[in-house]
Write a structure and sequence with these properties.
Helix content: over 70%
Radius of gyration: 16 Å
Shape: elongated
Structural class: mainly alpha
Distance between the termini: 24 Å
Order of helices and strands: HHHH
Number of strands: 0
């Protein structure tokens, strides 16, 4: 449950497999709002750079994942 909403209802509403919802809810408290905001800003920046430069997208994504997960 998240905010009183059963997992199966979340899965239905989000059109996701119940397994994905269950695994996601397990990590619900892992990041603060400010951390999530920063991550999304980084993703936006990365998306723009991938579309406007010749940077290797795989390398950029790998670096991003390492940076995000190393802070935990």
């Amino acid at each position: 449950e998240a905010a009183g909403v059963p997992q199966h209802a979340l899965a239905d509403e989000l059109h996701l497999h119940p397994f994905v919802v269950r695994k996601s809810l397990a990590h619900l408290g892992s990041f603060s709002f400010e951390e999530l905001k920063s991550i999304y800003e980084q993703l936006l920046d990365m998306d723009i750079r991938m579309k406007t430069s010749s940077v290797d997208p795989d390398a950029m994504l790998s670096l991003f994942v390492v940076q995000v997960t190393s802070g935990k």
